[in-house]
Amino acid sequence: MKKIAILTSGGDAPGMNAAIRAVVRTAIYSGLEVMGVQRGYSGLLNGELFAMDKTSVSDIIQRGGTILRTARCPEFKKEEVRQRAAKILKAYGVDALVVIGGDGSFMGAKLLSKLGIKTIGLPGTIDNDLAYTDFTIGFDTALNTVVDAINKIRDTSTSHERVSIIEVMGRDCGDIALHAGISGGAESIIVPEMKDFDKDALCRTILDGKNHGKMHNLIILSEGIGGAFELAKYVEELTGIETRATVLGHIQRGGSPSASDRVLASRLGAKAVEVLLSGETSKVIGIRDNKIIDQDIDEALAMESKFDEDLYRVAEILSR
């Protein structure tokens, strides 16, 4: 193997630049040439490839987003489109492709590997919704962004003696909501994995708190359930307590990556090159029990996410 390429795909996540940097510098250290692909699979199909060297990734480890840009590419699901992508990579002399993204990006890498291109996936998503790895690149930074917002909203919520409902990202995974709820001292955490959510029980808890002198209530709502404004209206009508909803949205994707995300991305990026040099393909890199692991893409994508119900029970106890 002489030349590899790297792209970022799907939603951006803080730490992607640190992963790009690690892949590029580890590859060059190992005697490989590196090409960057702009705008994910979409850019690949448009031939947006360029040579990268060590200076290409200077001064980026602290930057959020991705210097390679990213885009979604639904047409990549078509066999003929993937064949064209493989031909483009081969035309540039690329032997392997490193893909940084989530499950959809991994599926593209998996299918591309069947066309003679070695592929490796790195988990870049704030949602932390890839079951094979304990943490994904960007999750820790997004979590800290949410906690910072909670701290600010708590101040004004207490001043006005309000109920505050904060909707956070995560798609169908409640990890951001759960971890942020515990870190921010939320009274209630609503996640898609816990199907027995009862709006009336929530209102009773709020009223009980008020009767015991509680100054405010903070509720963290995962977007997998959504409807923060509708829930706020219901709570206010039933309890008579002023209730405000805040949807944090894409603020959670931005910002300088945390030290934890920078280290994780660096470890995963270096491992990706190591696995490619060993001759492996159609693999994903992750972290499990603080050890960097690699796993077959098929196995990784087939794993079912397991919500940490023990941690959720801790959250319930601490909120009482």
TrEMBL record:
ADP binds at R21, A22, V23, V24, R25, R154, G185, A186, E187, K214, M215, H216. Residues 3-276 form the Phosphofructokinase domain. ATP binds at G11, R72, C73, G102, D103, G104, S105. GO terms for biological process: canonical glycolysis; fructose 1,6-bisphosphate metabolic process; fructose 6-phosphate metabolic process. Pfam families: PFK (PF00365). Pathway: Carbohydrate degradation; glycolysis; D-glyceraldehyde 3-phosphate and glycerone phosphate from D-glucose: step 3/4. Allosterically activated by ADP and other diphosphonucleosides, and allosterically inhibited by phosphoenolpyruvate. One of its GO terms (cellular component) is 6-phosphofructokinase complex. GO terms for molecular function: 6-phosphofructokinase activity; AMP binding; ATP binding; fructose-6-phosphate binding; identical protein binding; metal ion binding; monosaccharide binding. Its cofactor is Mg(2+). It catalyses: beta-D-fructose 6-phosphate + ATP = beta-D-fructose 1,6-bisphosphate + ADP + H(+). Mg(2+) binds at D103. InterPro entries: ATP_PFK, ATP_PFK_prok-type, PFKA_ATP_prok, Phosphofructokinase_CS, Phosphofructokinase_dom, PKF_sf. It is found in: Cytoplasm. Its EC number is 2.7.1.11. The active site is at D127. Its main location: cytoplasm. Keywords: Allosteric enzyme, ATP-binding, Cytoplasm, Glycolysis, Kinase, Magnesium, Metal-binding, Nucleotide-binding, Transferase. HAMAP family: Phosphofructokinase_I_B1. Catalyzes the phosphorylation of D-fructose 6-phosphate to fructose 1,6-bisphosphate by ATP, the first committing step of glycolysis. Belongs to the phosphofructokinase type A (PFKA) family. ATP-dependent PFK group I subfamily. Prokaryotic clade 'B1' sub-subfamily. NCBIfam families: PFKA_ATP, PRK03202.1. Homotetramer. This is ATP-dependent 6-phosphofructokinase. It comes from Clostridium uliginosum. The gene is pfkA.
